Each structure stands twice: as C-alpha cells, then as structure tokens.
Predict the 3D structure of the following.
Amino acid sequence: MIYFRTPQYHETVQAGIVHDVNILRWFEEARVCYLEKLGFLIMKQTNSPLISPVLTASVKYHKPILLKDNTQIVTRLTMYNGFRYIFYYEVQNRQSDVIFSTGTTTHCFLHPDGKPVRMKREFPQFHRLLQKCVEYDRREWEYTLFGEIF
C-alpha cells in the first residue's frame, strides 16, 4: 500500500528538514491507513474491544526530507502470526527513486485490559485477511526486487 504524505512546516527544524521523530509518526499514519483500507476500523471506536500497541520500532535515515519534498510511504505487512505483526516502511520521494528512510514497527493485539487477543477465534475474518496480506505483500516485494520469475 502507498500512503502519500506532504511534509508540513511544523514538522521541520530551522533548516527546513523534517525532524527525525516525525518519521515514526508517519509510519503510524501509514499503518492505520493500511488497516483502515482493509476495513478494520474497530480500533478507532471509543470503547474498542481491541488495542494494538507498539512493541518495537526502528528507523534508518538515508537522506534528509526537506519541506519541499513530496513523499510517499510504501507500507508492507511482512509478518503476522495471529497475535503479533510487523510492518515494513519505505519513505520515498514521489518524483524520483530516492529513499529517505526505511523502518519497521512491531505490534500485537490486546484487549483493553491487557490480555492477548486470539485473532483466529475472536476476529476470524480479519485474521484470514491479514494472512492474505502478508502473502500478497511478500510477492509484491519480491517482484519489485527481482522482477518476474518463471
């Protein structure tokens, strides 16, 4: 999935470069957009039966993002095991092949009381959909990297 993002002035430091902490916020925006496009809006409800905290986050900064740069965040679901899931992100320039940063976030599904959610049993449709997304994103990534393999 591609999430389009235009840097905002308030996200920059004095030199007009996007502050590095904002990249993690952009990852979160892209992840939420990905899940919403799948139709999974339950976590936005006030009394949601499900939360999805961040367990780990990592970012590698390749080039600074300037205020004038039009960006896109390629978001891929790389792992899902029924409880934990990992997203991979590439922040790219929309007009060129420049990659500004890459990273991952790891999350899990919990009930609001902190107990683990058994997605396969409690949300079976979404569980199957996430499994399909991992497979689709893996094939798409391989195709991007290696082209069509016969």
User: Anything to note?
Assistant: DSSP finds three helices and five strands in the chain. The mean pLDDT is 87. The beta strands are 2-5, 54-61, 71-80, 84-93, 99-108. The helical segments are 21-37, 119-122, 124-146.
